[in-house]
Amino acid sequence: MASRLSIRNTKADDGKRIWRLAVDSGRLDVNSSYCYIMLCDYFSDTCFVAEIDGEAAGFVTSFIHPLNPELLFVWQMAVAEEHRGQGIAELLLHHLMESESCKKVRYLETTVSPGNSASRRVLSKLSERIGTSMVISKGYTSALFPEGKHEEEPLIRLGPLQKTSIPTS
Ligand SMILES: CC(=O)NCC[C@H](N)C(=O)O
């Protein structure tokens, strides 16, 4: 039977499932489970979860910069290994960017470490599909992290973003 994919805004009780996706992704900095519950609750308008047959298959957490309503910061995104390669990350970003809360957003910023090639690829494809630029700059260097023991986190900036639907074919 074809899997049923649905994407929706998060709720507090999605926190533990998104925490588990972050842990299992093997690519993300795992925050406290409390952090995911809080994000899913207080930032639910810009956090989305993808479910397949009711099971969490992917997520995106983000927030609009408190001092700049035109700037969206994507904190984390990940798709469960068994569901990768189906365009779920692109769909999550599409739902996010087309959401009511992002009506004034003109730029998307995020950091992606060199080891997270999947997220880098998703963002690159997105910039091509909506016909806007993707600018990579310094972001957070390893020196910012305790004992410099973290990969560099270059900043990726997409925009200006036009309000057009993103072809997902
Ligand atoms: C887009 C994305 O998932 N970035 C991850 C940033 C950082 N390494 C983290 O895991 O929070």
TrEMBL record:
<comment type="pathway">
    <text>Amine and polyamine biosynthesis; ectoine biosynthesis; L-ectoine from L-aspartate 4-semialdehyde: step 2/3.</text>
</comment>
<comment type="similarity">
    <text>Belongs to the acetyltransferase family. EctA subfamily.</text>
</comment>
<dbReference type="Pfam" id="PF00583">
    <property type="entry name" value="Acetyltransf_1"/>
</dbReference>
<dbReference type="GO" id="GO:0033816">
    <property type="term" value="F:diaminobutyrate acetyltransferase activity"/>
</dbReference>
<dbReference type="InterPro" id="IPR012772">
    <property type="entry name" value="Ectoine_EctA"/>
</dbReference>
<keyword id="KW-0808">Transferase</keyword>
<keyword id="KW-0012">Acyltransferase</keyword>
<dbReference type="InterPro" id="IPR016181">
    <property type="entry name" value="Acyl_CoA_acyltransferase"/>
</dbReference>
<feature type="domain" description="N-acetyltransferase">
    <location>
        <begin position="5"/>
        <end position="160"/>
    </location>
</feature>
<protein>
    <recommendedName>
        <fullName>L-2,4-diaminobutyric acid acetyltransferase</fullName>
        <ecNumber>2.3.1.178</ecNumber>
    </recommendedName>
</protein>
<dbReference type="GO" id="GO:0019491">
    <property type="term" value="P:ectoine biosynthetic process"/>
</dbReference>
<dbReference type="InterPro" id="IPR000182">
    <property type="entry name" value="GNAT_dom"/>
</dbReference>
